[in-house]
Structure formats: structure tokens, C-alpha cells
Amino acid sequence: MRLKALCLALASLLLATVSLATPAAAQIEINVNKGDVQPLPIAIPAFGGTRGADIAQVITGNLERSGLFAPIGQQAYIEKNLNVAVQPRFPDWKAINAQALVNGQVTVEGGRLQVDFRLWDVYSEQQLLGLQFTSTPENWRRVAHKISDAVYERLTGEKGYFDTRIVFVSETGGRLNRTKTLAIMDQDGANPSYLTDGSYIVMSPRFSATSQEITYMTLRPEGSAIYLFNLETARRESIGQFPGMVYAPRFSPDGGRVAFSVERGGNSDIYVMNLKSRTSARLTSDPGIDTSASFSPDGTKIVFNSDRGGSPQLYIMNSDGSGVRRISYGSGRYTTPVWSPVGDFIAFTKQTGGEFHIGVMRPDGSDERLLTTSYLDESPTWAPNGRVLMFSRETPGGPPRLWTVDVTGRILRPAPYPGSGSDPAWSPLLN
């Protein structure tokens, strides 16, 4: 299960010389903060060499799904068989309105895969990036994701999110007899695998931001429990026994604590456990139902939902349980809050008017925006760059599916996983 390390090296001096020889001009960029971004036309011809076409296809799919790029079909290309050591024939790419061009070459030598690629600004005729990745041949998809992240970051100024994975609950069977299995896949739906055998129900998996570890809860006839699962060793471990039902575990940003809820006698409160000492502390003691704790990126605060005010709303407290204050005041029911990895927004599920929405608001409760509307949308999770959310959507009578939406609400589409799934959790960028 361990992912193999990739090596990244800067481009050769030869290519730096090519870049310096081109005329200075304004470079292309995408402003992701504009609400009306027009996708950038980009050409991504098949890379030369073994797996070259596959790598270009993965890059094309990643950039297209972001909604910020409009890959141009290969049938439109005039120049063929590009060489990474030579400048492209820019007039040929201007003729098909390509604003940017990605080309590359794959070689395999001594059992190692080497991928060189270039990113070109077609209209200024400048090289924007020249990088080389090396890895094992079977790791070619990760190399494609790394290149996608590099192109995304160079043209948007923000980190990419393609070299990541999604852990989720795979669901099969009818609504009343559904099998729920812990599953994991690449963010583009590739390489799905299953971490439990479906003999018991699993719920609410979440990634650690600092290790190859997942926390999730199980529901069996004898009760509920919270587990840690190490992806590297496949070792599963209970975090302890608690009287009552435990649920909604969430790692702290440093991976050293897990916040969770315990329900006893119809009341639910939030606890936090130090994973090193295995000691836990109770953070809330209100008669209302307190659940769905999510840490801020610096670990100093926790957002959660509570019905202590009469209906489920969002609250923030310090990580020691002090300083509780309400941040949502709209009509309807606010649940499943999750703090953005970059700290600027809190995503949530909102139920109002017979419909469900995925929304975001600032941590002070301002600037609330509803990004989706559906029969049942729930369980948002953030991509590591804080620009895209994945969530589960269910239609009347249909199984739950995974969808994505960007933080503006403009780019909404099904996730590229063909099966039924719910409760997704996005990993941080892989090392």
C-alpha cells in the first residue's frame, strides 16, 4: 500500500537556454478568484515514448475536470511528434487557439521511468516550466498527477490537488439492506480498493494530514467503535472503549489528536483523545446534541454543530472547549461542518425548504453561500488546496454518488468513480 517516492529535478541547462532565447511578453495566468473564469484552451499532445499517450490522457482529464482548462482535441493538432529539446512551432498552436501547450517525453532505462515535460505559453512563445520526474514504471499515473499539479500551480498560482486520494464508503445493495465497505481510490477514480470486507457497517472515514492513517467508525450489533487504519501496514487498531455510541471521528491537523462524539441517554457531547497518551477529555457538556467536530488548520479552534439553540446550527469553540460561540443564524438545519485546509471557509450541509445544499461561510459566519441544491447532498470534504469540495448526492430511489463542486459553485460535476459511494474524505497532497 505504501506509495513509492517520486524524484523531482529541475530541467536541464539546455532547456533553460531555450527559454532565455525567447522574446519577453506577458505570460498567461488564470485568476481563480474570479467568479466567471473562462476555461483556458490548452493542448496536451501524447508524450513520446512508452506510456506517453496514457500520461497525457491523465493530465488532460485532471485539468479538464478542474473547470479551469479546456483541452483541445488531438485531431486539431497541426504539429506532430514534438521534441522536448526543441521549441514547438508556435504558429501551428496559435492557429488552433491553444493558449498553453504541454509536451513531454518518456524513457525507461535501468528499470526507472523518466518523464521530461515542458509547459509553454504559446502567444508569448515562452517556456513556463521544464521539469523531470523519475519513478518506477508502474508509478506512471502518479507522475501524471504530479505534472498536472505543476501545470495547475504554474498557471493559477495556487497548489494543485491531483496527486491525492479519496477514502469513502462504498455502498452496494438495496436501501434497507445496504453493504457499506471502507474504500479508497485516486482522486480521479482510478485504482479503487477496499479496506474492509463488508461484514459490518463503516462510517465517516477521515485522513490524517500527517501520516498514512485513516480514522473511521464501525457499527456492529454489539455497538459502535472508532478505529485507526494504517495504510502502510494495513494494521487496524481501536482507539478505546466508551460507554454509549461513538461517532464522527476527526484528526487534529498535527495528527496527534482525534475529536469524536459520544452519545449517552439521548445526549451527545464532543470529546478529544490524545493518541500518544490515549487520554481523552470532554469538550462540551451542553444538554443539546453536539457533534461533527472539525479542527481549524492551526488546531486552535473547533467548529461543530449543535441543536442547543433549538435547531442544528454551527458553533466554534477553542480546542480546549472554552469560548463557545454560534456562527450560523440562517433558517434551516446546518450539519457536517468541515474547516477548509487553508482556513478561509467552513463548508457545511444545509437542509431547508425540503432540499439539501452544500454551502460555505467564513469562520465568523459571514459570506454564507450555497453551492449546490439537490434532493440529498451531504458530507462535504475539501481538496487540500481549499478550492474544490467533494460530497455525496442521492436522488429519489437512487444510490448515493460522489460529486465535486468548486468554491464558487460554478464547476459542479460527478466525480469520476462509476460506483455508489458516500461520506468521502480527501487526503492531503501525497509525499
UniProtKB/TrEMBL annotation:
Q: Signal peptide position in this chain?
A: 1-21
The answer to keyword Signal applying to this record is yes
Enumerate the spans annotated as TolB N-terminal domain: 29-128
Q: Does the keyword Cell division apply?
A: yes
- InterPro entries to which the protein is assigned, alphabetical: 6-blade_b-propeller_TolB-like (IPR011042), Tol-Pal_TolB (IPR014167), TolB_N (IPR007195), WD40 (IPR011659)
SUPFAM superfamilies reported for this sequence: DPP6 N-terminal domain-like, TolB, N-terminal domain
Which Pfam families does the entry link to? PD40, TolB_N
Q: Which GO terms describe its cellular component?
A: periplasmic space
Say where the protein is mainly found.
periplasm
Output one GO BP term: protein import
**Compartments where found:** Periplasm
Record keywords, A-Z:
Cell cycle, Cell division, Periplasm, Signal
Q: How does it assemble?
A: The Tol-Pal system is composed of five core proteins: the inner membrane proteins TolA, TolQ and TolR, the periplasmic protein TolB and the outer membrane protein Pal. They form a network linking the inner and outer membranes and the peptidoglycan layer.
Q: What does this protein's UniProt record list under function? A: Part of the Tol-Pal system, which plays a role in outer membrane invagination during cell division and is important for maintaining outer membrane integrity.
**PANTHER family the UniProt entry points to:** PROTEIN TOLB, PROTEIN TOLB HOMOLOG
HAMAP family from the UniProt entry:
TolB
Q: Which family does this protein fall into?
A: Belongs to the TolB family.
- Name-wise, this protein is Tol-Pal system protein TolB
Q: What organism does the record attribute this protein to?
A: Phenylobacterium glaciei
